[in-house]
Amino acid sequence: MTRPLPHPLTHAAAHPDAVINHILFDIAIPAAIAIHIFLIALCVWRVWRGQNSIDRLIGADLVGTLTCSLLVLLSLVLRSAIYVEVALALASLGFLSTIFLAKLITDENAA
Amino acid sequence: MLPLLTSILALVLILAGTAASVLGILGYYRLPDVFTRLHATGMVGTFGVTLLVGATVFAAGVAWPKAILLAVLILIAGPCTSHALASAAYRIRLPLHRSARFPHRDDLEQDTTTPPNQS
């Protein structure tokens, strides 16, 4: 004769560790990933319909930065270090390309 | 399963980083000027990515030297990028918002293509 297992919700409510883990891994991190993908879409829209070249370049730099934070969130979910390395390479490449394009715009448009 | 204090700390850091990114993009959409937009979007690189890296270091603990290297690289690269973009926007004489006031504004705007009495 075995005792019936407790219901998962009551079992979780008995342990605050499980509640916080449920909120963190099942609600907060997927919501943060969805919000970051939405913000990347907003930045791509602003790159397409920008007002001037510097405005578009700010949008392109923001796409790189938000992709870095998205990769950091993915490494937190999947517990893999390879996403942090990809984010490192993406951050350095985005930094160099943004500074190069800013200098190029300055040299071609300066009076 | 993570311990309680680590989970709460990671939750707070992820919420703060996402809120910083949302505020930065909101300023990028709503502010009227290239320079004020740069002022808003500096927060995405500095606070957003750095707080999420802090959450990863506290919660997962995988590859924390690489994560701290990423945070340091972004903390150095973000202000450099903002300065380069603001310098380029100043040198190609992008128009400022009409409420901007600084001492040499007339010298900056005297030979642009916009008429001087444009509101």
Structure description:
With 111 residues, chain A is an all-alpha fold. Chain A has four helices and no strands. Chain B has four helices and no strands. By secondary structure, chain B is mostly helical. In chain B, 72% of the residues lie in helices and 0% in strands. In chain B, helix 1 packs antiparallel against helix 2 and helix 2 runs antiparallel to helix 3. At the A-B interface, helix 2, helix 3 and helix 4 of A face helix 1, helix 2 and helix 3 of B.
Name its key features.
heterodimer; A: 111 residues; 85% helix; B: 119 residues; 4 helices; 72% helix
Global Rg of chain A: 22 Å
Strand-residue proportion of chain A: under 5%
Structural class of chain A: mainly alpha
Low-confidence stretches of chain B: none
Q: What multimeric state do the chains show?
A: heterodimer
Helicity range of the residues of chain A?
over 70%
What low-confidence regions of chain A span 5 or more consecutive residues with pLDDT below 50?
Answer: none
Number of helices of chain B: 4
* Secondary-structure element pattern of chain A, one letter each: HHHH
Estimate the global geometry of chain A from the Cα principal axes.
elongated
Helix content of chain B: over 70%
Shape of chain B: elongated
